[in-house]
Structures are given as C-alpha cells and as structure tokens.
Design brief:
The protein is built from nine helices and 24 strands. The chain has about 450 residues and is of the alpha/beta class. The strands form six sheets. A five-stranded parallel sheet has the order 3-2-1-7-19, covered by helices on one side. A five-stranded parallel sheet has the order 9-16-10-11-12, with helices on one face. Strands 20-21-24-23-22 form a five-stranded antiparallel sheet, sandwiched between helices. About 45% of the residues are buried. The chain binds flavin-adenine dinucleotide (FAD).
Length: about 450
C-alpha cells in the first residue's frame, strides 16, 4: 500500500513536541505523537505550572504579611496544604484535557502510555517498528541527581516526585543554588516550612547583581549555606527524620523532607545513533537537525537553556524545516525569570562595556503597599552609548516577566532608547523600563552633542 501523506513521528508530548506536532498536522502532515507520561510534559506536570500554583499561594501569604505589618489585617490565614495540592492536581488535569483536545483537533494522532526510542532513523514505539519519513525527538529532560549516599531514601524528592507529598514538611532541606532551588525555598518558607538551602557554590550566582539582591531579600528567612557539599543523607537516631551531613560550617541538618533541585539533564538515553554532547544533549544545528538525516530534535533534550518557550520555538523551527520552510533558531534574546515575591526577569545580550541605569519600580497596582518596605521592585536597562541600542533589561515587580518578554523582542528588532520618545505608557502601572529608556535617550543625546 502506498502512503499518500508524509508520516512524521514525534517522541514526547511536552511543550516542544506538542507544538511541533500541531504545526506539522496543521500543515496537512500525518503526525503520530508518542507520549509515555502526561501531555504538557514537565511544564504542566512538574515544573512551570505547579510552581505557579504554589507561588500564587505563597505570594498571597506574603502580601497579607505586608498588610498585617501595616496593621490592616490582624492575622495571616493558615494554608490547607492537602487541599491546595488536591485543587492544584484537579486544575492540572483540566489543562491536560485542553491540551489533549487542542492537539487532537489539529489532527495529531496521540499514542499515550508507550515509550518511543530511536536507532538512528528507525523508530520503535514499545517494541513495534514504525515507518516514518521524519522524526522529532522531544523527550525533554530529567532532574539531575547528584551522587550522594542516601539520595534515594524515602522522603528525598525531586521536582518530579515532590508534588505527591501529602503534608507540608515542617523542616525542608533543599539541595541546589539555582533558580529552581530559590523558587522552591521561597514557596515552602512562605507556606510555613523551616527551609534550609544548601548550595555547592553561591546561590543565584549568574543573576544580575541588582536582581540577586532582591532575590536574597525574599530568601532572608531561609537558612542558606553556600559553598557546601552534602556528604550523605541518612535517618537520624530514632529513624523519624532525615539527617543531612555536610562538609560546611553546619555539619548536620535534620529534615522531614529533602528536595533535590540541582538542575536538569537531557533525557536522551533512548535516542540511539544520534551524536550527543557530554551531558547527553542531542547535538543539533540551528535548523534543529541532528546528525542523522530526517531526524530533528527540540527542547530540553538538546541542552540548556531549559525553558518552555525555547522548547516551543525550537519545535516550530524543526517543524518548519521538515515542511520545507527554511528557518533558524536564534538564541540571542531569550527572556528568563525567577518567581519569588515578585517576578524577577531579565534578558541581557553578551555585549561588553554597556552603560546601565537602574531605578526602583514605580508605585502602582501590586506595589503601592510595598512603598513603606522599599520593595517595589526594580527597572534596569543596559544601553550601548553611541547609538542607544538596548542590550539588556532587568525588571522586578508585578508584570516584570511580561515587560521583559516584550523588551527582548524589541531588542531582537534593534530598538534603541531613542525609539521610546514616542512611547505612551499605561498609568498607573509598575513598568519602570519605558521611563528609564526615555531618560537614557535624553542623557545620551546631551552627552553625544557636547
Ligand atoms: C521545577 C521546574 C520549574 C520550571 N520552571 C520553568 C519556568 O518557570 N519557565 C520555563 O520556561 N521553564 C521552566 N521549567 C522548564 C520547562 O519545564 C522545560 O524547559 C520544558 O518543559 C521543556 O519542554 P520539552 O518539550 O523539551 O520537554 P519536557 O517538558 O520534559 O517533555 C518531554 C516529554 O517527553 C515524554 N517522554 C520522555 N521520554 C519519552 C519516550 N521515550 N517516549 C515517549 N515519551 C517520552 C515525557 O513524558 C514528557 O512528557 C521548569 C522545570 C522544572 C522541572
């Protein structure tokens, strides 16, 4: 029998694989999407969405705390942890239904509950060999598990298992010093756990210094031990709690739960025959082509940055190239954020010696009551002094992520601070960036004319 349509197999129904499948099916291709877990991948099931869910509650407690300090509220209500988890899972299921319906209605044939693997260009779904004209590997990433004795004990969680936890740990030890570790530390501290963060290096060491200062303010009541290695995890004498032994100033911690938040690694073991890097990341060119003809890869499986929008965009690039529409991935302007008491977001190009300007975030919706505690956030821009091109932006405050996303787009399209002369902002708002750009434009014009 001759197949009339081109058949494309996509391995993994996370953000990368799902969006690529929809793009291909919408263009009339026959697409089979293999997903052995839940649609939406880590983003919906273990990452962005559950972190949003818990952070929303944590921020509410934080805001109530500010009102309480000012005498507006008498107390902060306690959180019903198990109810919060139950409701969160219900909402995740609802979103999964929407994603499933959207994907199927685009014409994608989804096979759930089976694992796919590759041997070069040959695809297997479970043990069945499947004919495919092209393949996209979008198998994502897995939590990195450091080699520590006792790391597999019950009570030690990763982001993939944490959300099965039934009650709030009174004492939580988090291993890690990056964005993920900081976000979980903020959440559990706000919910009421006693949180210790143990990091091998400096916490949030790669973040802009102004944003890092704000982040550390949010983590003030978290006990942080940096430049410390964990030696082992075991049970304490009575076997009731975990004991973490370190080589740092505080050698022992007792905890009810330990969370490993040491980052992600590409999930590529099942992708045989493809050229890979040292961490197992599938090597791709900027068309998302792997070393095997007609096999493409996208998302976390090709290595960092491990971000949903990057995975989605790479999925689109892979799909378009399969469709014969030449397209390249541009990784120069990727906005990122850390969600703590507010959104701390940034996008900074690698250009050196840029001038920078920073101001506190304006008082506005969501920051008015933060004026007394000087926690209205921040706006910061990096500017190339001769032409005024914007080479970086940092924001902290409600809507900081949105502002930075759009600014990254303007940066990609070579906007300068002078273009902001025509910009009319919303008021009241917590956007400090547009005012800062106007101010920078005036200053540069004066400087360059003298
Ligand atoms: C705690 C946490 C917080 C995060 N927060 C953010 C954030 O705030 N913002 C952000 O942008 N990103 C965040 N991320 C990262 C984001 O979740 C990932 O970058 C994104 O999900 C990657 O999408 P993907 O499609 O490449 O892979 P994944 O989401 O990992 O999806 C891969 C899919 O493939 C399936 N699969 C794997 N192997 C097979 C196989 N052999 N056969 C069939 N199916 C298979 C898996 O079940 C999974 O559904 C976070 C991640 C974590 C863990």
């Amino acid at each position: 029998m001759v197949r009339e349509k081109t058949m494309i197999v996509v391995l993994g129904g996370g953000p990368g694989g799902r969006i690529a499948s929809i793009r291909l099916a919408s263009a009339g291709k026959e697409v089979r999407l293999i997903e052995h877990g839940g649609i939406g991948g880590q983003c919906l099931n273990f990452g962005c969405m559950p972190v949003c869910a818990l952070n929303d509650v944590a921020r509410t407690i934080h805001s109530v705390g500010i009102f309480q300090q000012l005498g507006l509220f008498d107390s902060t209500p306690p959180v019903n942890f198990s109810k919060m988890m139950e409701e969160m899972h219900a909402i995740q299921s609802k979103i999964a239904c929407v994603l499933d319906a959207e994907t199927k209605s685009a014409g994608v044939d989804i096979t759930y509950g089976k694992s796919g693997r590759l041997d070069g260009k040959t695809v297997f779904v479970a043990d069945e060999k499947v004919e495919a004209d092209a393949v996209i590997a979008a198998t994502g990433s897995l939590p990195y598990i450091p080699d520590i004795p006792g790391i597999d004990l019950p009570g030690v969680y990763t982001p993939h298992t944490l959300f099965q936890i039934k009650s709030m740990p009174e004492r939580l030890v988090i291993i890690g010093g990056g964005v993920m570790a900081a976000e979980f530390a903020y959440i559990f501290r706000a919910l009421g756990s006693e949180v210790s963060l143990i990091a091998r290096t400096t916490v949030l060491k790669n973040i802009d210094k102004h944003l890092r200062t704000l982040a550390m303010k949010d983590l003030l009541s978290v006990h942080i031990q940096e430049n410390t290695r964990i030696r082992s995890i075991g049970w304490n004498d009575r076997g009731k709690s975990l004991q973490i032994t370190t080589d740092g100033k505080i050698p022992h911690y007792d905890a009810d739960a330990v969370l490993i938040a040491t980052g992600l690694v590409p999930n590529s073991a099942m992708l045989g025959g493809l050229k890979k890097g040292p961490e197992g990341e599938v090597i791709v060119d900027d068309h998302m082509r792997t070393s095997v003809p007609s096999v493409y890869a996208c998302g976390d499986v090709v290595g960092p940055p491990y971000l949903t929008p990057v995975a989605r965009h790479q999925g689109i690039v892979a799909a378009d190239n399969i469709l014969g529409i030449p397209r390249k991935m541009d990784c120069r302007f990727i906005p990122q954020s850390i969600n703590l008491s507010q959104e701390l977001a940034f996008c900074i190009t690698e250009k050196k010696n840029m001038g920078s300007l920073a101001i506190p975030g304006p008082a506005g919706p969501g920051t008015f009551w933060s004026v007394p505690s000087n926690t209205t956030g921040l706006a910061k821009i990096f500017v190339e002094p001769e032409h005024g091109s914007i080479e970086g932006v940092c924001t902290a405050g409600p809507g900081g992520g949105l502002i930075t996303g759009y600014m990254a787009f303007l940066m990609q399209h070579h906007f300068s601070v002078h273009d902001f002369e025509e910009f009319i902002e919303i008021h009241p708002s917590t956007d400090g960036v547009s005012g800062l750009a106007k101010y920078a434009s005036e200053r540069l014009k004066k400087r360059n004319s003298s």
